[in-house]
Amino acid sequence: MTTSPDTGPVPAGIPDFPEPRSARCPFDLSPQMRGLAAYGPVFRVRNGDGKTPWVVTSHAEQKALLSDNRLSVDFAAPDFPSPIARHGGGEGETEAHGEAAQDGDSHGVTDLSFVGMDDPEHARLRRMVSGVFTIKRVEAMRPAVQELVDGFIDRLLDGPKPVDLVQAFSLPIPSLVISEPLGVPYDDHEFFQINSKTLVSLTATPAERHSAHTALVDYLDQLVGERLGNPGEDLLSRLAAQVRAGELTRREVAVMGVLLLLGGHETTANMITLGVLLLLQHPRQAALVREAEDPKVVVGAVEELLRFLTIAHLGRRRTALEDIEIAGRTIRKGEGVIMLGELANRDPSVFPDPDRLDITRDARQHQAFGAGTHHCIGQPLARMELQVIYPALLRRIPTLRLATELDQVPFKYDAVIYGAHELHVTW
User: Fold this and answer.
1) Would you say 320 and 104 are in contact if contact means Cβ atoms under 8 Å apart?
2) CA gyration radius for the chain?
3) Dist. CA 317–CA 333, nearest whole Å
4) pLDDT tens-digit profile of 275-303?
5) 324 Cα distance to chain centroid
6) Are 199 and 100 in contact (CB under 8 A)?
7) Please, which residues have CB within 8 angstroms of residue 230's CB and are 6 or more apart in sequence?
């Protein structure tokens, strides 16, 4: 390890980011990633794009920095640390810390609404959509989501087996759930699912990501135009009213719609798939969920699954707006910072025996949804969907099991959001 008074320690031999999980243990951290915590809570690494950002591994330091307004989420910042360059991307490409992927355009960055903005503009735009995701609003949706889930389980039971759970269950449910309040026709789900998949891919070319983003923005812009002339009760209609009032442009609404559509189905779909698979690998834990009479048991199980899996597995990325002292280090103005949530969620000082799945533990301090002003706006909706889905599926198909060997499951090592491309199950 070499040390510089200006840059701090630069460990030799540290792998570039993102470091893939081991195929032998797809739910766990890679040995290299796990070893990062030994270097301390805050230190430098050499990133795949040739930069040397700071990495933050501990729960406490990550929580503090995610709530620190001296760090920027602006993707156009010159030292914003990107993992995409290692996978064939170019200069200026960035990653929207688990909620969406950015791609390079002629100006080096593509707008994805408030995810890539700092306050006060971030807060202004976020307030315009936050009402859809309040706990009260989301809880009012629970009976309809339960009915929707039961209907998909009916179709599973009546259909052929084995079946790909991703296509038959995990992906369509959150797509339907987010489509209705947003005001996007579910009939177009194949279009936005295909383009969303390209946006979060680490192996897609810059041109492919740009094309996918443009297609989605144009699609949402058309829907906004329809709402301007014929408003309804959905979120796009309410945002279209802001266009008429001069508070937003049509493009701003369209880009905001892409963000919500992508975040509303891509992340939840992957959590459904991985959560089911993880429970199938831990039958005693699955039995606790299946047999739970107290809803709090299911709530706790969801929090533990979120902690254990941490599907936003490339870290949350920031740029320092001024010098920041933390954990005995000085992060200089303009330097990049990567907060590794998967390590924060395996911090033994917060979660004893963190590599053990235990749905009875109190996992509420996990950072699967981030922290601070940029915490995931859709987390109440995601939590509610998972609380409905896991027990419903396990109770109604108690003999559910994997139809292949675990090492045959094609995991998403190639995407911003971790998951599985397919999951064939039977019963």
Assistant:
1) no
2) 21
3) 15
4) 999 999 999 999 999 999 999 999 999 99
5) 27
6) yes
7) none
Distances from the Cα of 286 to the Cα of 245, 299, 308, 361, 398, angstroms: 51, 14, 15, 15, 9
Rounded Cα distance between 295 and 26, Å, is 29
Q: Is the pTM of this model over 0.85?
A: yes
Neighbours of 47 (CB within 10 A): 20
Pairing of strands 54-56, 336-339: parallel
125 CB-near residues (< 8 Å, 6+ apart): 113, 114, 117, 248, 252, 256
**C-beta of residue 306 within 8 angstroms of C-beta of residue 316:** no
One-letter-per-residue 3-state SS of the chain: CEEECCCEEECCCCCCCCCCCCCCCCCCCCHHHHHHHHHCCEEECCCCCCCCCEEECCHHHHHHHHCCCCEECCCCCCCCCCCHHHHCCCCCCCEECCCEECCCCCCCCCCCHHHHCCCCHHHHHHHHHHHHHCHHHHHHHHHHHHHHHHHHHHHHHHCCCCEEHHHHHHCHHHHHHHHHHHCCCHHHHHHHHHHHHHHCECCCCHHHHHHHHHHHHHHHHHHHHHHHHCCCCCHHHHHHHHHHCCCCCHHHHHHHHHHHHHHHHHHHHHHHHHHHHHHHHCHHHHHHHHHCCCHHHHHHHHHHHHHHHCCECCCEEEEECCCEEECCEEECCCCEEEECHHHHCCCCCCCCCCCCCCCCCCCCCCCCCCCHHHCCCCHHHHHHHHHHHHHHHHHHCCCCEECCCHHHCCECCCECECCECCCEEEC
Cα separation, 100 vs 94, whole angstroms: 10
Higher pLDDT, 183 or 16: 183
Torsion of CA 26, 28, 30, 35, to 10 degrees: -170
Instruction: Compute the distance between CA of residue 21 and CA of residue 411 in angstroms, rounded to an integer.
Output: 10
Structure tokens at 404: 């292949």
Contact 19, 30 (CB under 8 A): yes
Q: What are phi and psi of 129, to 5 degrees?
A: -115, -10
Query: What per-residue confidence (pLDDT) applies to 13?
Result: 56
Prior bond of 354 cis (ω within 30°): no
Reported as a single tens digit per residue, the pLDDT across 342-360 is 999 999 999 999 999 999 9
**405/260 Cα distance (integer angstroms):** 35
Q: Are 393 and 153 within 8 A, CB to CB? A: yes
Count of alpha carbons within 13 Å of 237, Cβ hemisphere only?
9
Parallel/antiparallel/unpaired status of strands 8-10 and 2-4: antiparallel
